[in-house]
Amino acid sequence: MTADLSQIVKAYDVRGVVPDQWDESLAELFGAAFARVTGASAIVTGHDMRPSSPGLSGAFARGAAAQGVDVTEIGLCSTDQLYYASGALDLPGAMFTASHNPAQYNGIKLCRAGAAPVGQDTGLTEIRELVEKWSESGAPEPAATAGTVTRRETLDDYATHLRSLVDLTSIRHLKAVVDAGNGMGGHTVPSVLAGLPLTVVPMYFELDGTFPHHEANPLDPANLVDLQRRVREEGADLGLAFDGDADRCFVVDERGEPVSPSAITALVASRELARNGGKGTIIHNLITSWSVPEVVEENGGTPVRTRVGHSFIKAEMATSGAIFGGEHSAHYYFRDFWNADTGMLAALHVLAALGGQQGTLSALVDQYDRYAGSGEINSTVDDQSARLAAIRAAYEGRDGITLDELDGLTVTAADWWFNVRPSNTEPLLRLNAEARDQATMTRIRDEALAVIRG
Description:
By secondary structure, the protein is of the alpha/beta class. It has helices at 24-38, 53-66, 79-89, 120-137, 155-165, 185-192, 225-234, 261-275, 291-298, 310-320, 343-355, 361-366, 384-395, 438-452, and strands at residues 14-17, 42-47, 70-76, 93-96, 105-112, 116-117, 149-151, 174-179, 198-203, 238-242, 249-252, 258-259, 281-285, 302-306, 324-326, 332-334, 372-373, 377-380, 402-404, 409-412, 416-422, 428-435. The two termini are 43 Å apart. It holds the Pfam family PGM_PMM_I.
């Protein structure tokens, strides 16, 4: 198969339509290239519930084994379960998933030993170059001695590790509705929450990579509707929604209202700081709420602002020795989880915080949700650079306004801020705005959109 790898090798992972853009023969070459680039003698692989995942994962394992690498297959798993295996076994890892993409997609998330990310600047470019060469000239030379391929179960160990990081034994009894979206949360949630003082109401726990009920992307409000309704019907204390590979978790309060990921970031940050004696660095990306650095400082911590994206967060976590990091997209990163992201661990923190007091979740998070936010608004544009320049021209030089270009363009005033970032893969600009009150946020949002859309 001759593939246009520029279409499937992204900044942080491999992702494309199967079999149109890639297939098992290409997956085998990716396995061989991963073995060569990491130089590892052993690796670990896992996969989600998509129909194409077992075949792709198996082909990758064959390619790596042919290069003399011993492969440990953990089979069906969430992405953070694969990170657990990479960390606990100290092995490079490959996770076969396309996260929340539609059923015809699949992909590979790669990491080095200890769940360290592999992206364009940390090995993915070299892997792509090898696969391109071999796809044109034939398979690579095999090793003199092939590696072994063995199976290993890690689900119970993963669940035990997570529960060791958050004490839930003394919480009051809670009722939680969990929407797995037919994704890997249906595999991990029963094990992680087993034996805790919880009544779990499961929704869409059947593993089905065709996503028959709704897209497994809780960032889209349309995909939270079923969960919100069920929380209200059940009189539950909260709802949890996981994406397809269950590395992200979204939270709904007892009224069925979504809880901002920034509020969850602030809540978990305060708990992690308390667990570390009121000291530590907390990472947040530049479009999380102002409330996040405020709460971090109020609890004795040091906030560090970064670009959006897990590779930047994980790199800064490692550099600064941060204890926790959070993003607006509901990715949550923990030092005690090899700096990797795990929505499940964030969910345990929310359960512990809620169950450790008598109030409602909406009352609990109110202290962490202090401003009016727009959420992310996408606009299709003909020329990203020209529209960004137009925004700069509209605001540059105004009294009391500062501009910075850490990631896209951020415009900040005393009572509001907004950020505009170009998409790396689509002709889009992404706007996020926040202000001290709803009326100001609406005004600033609409003013920025008018410039963006010309």
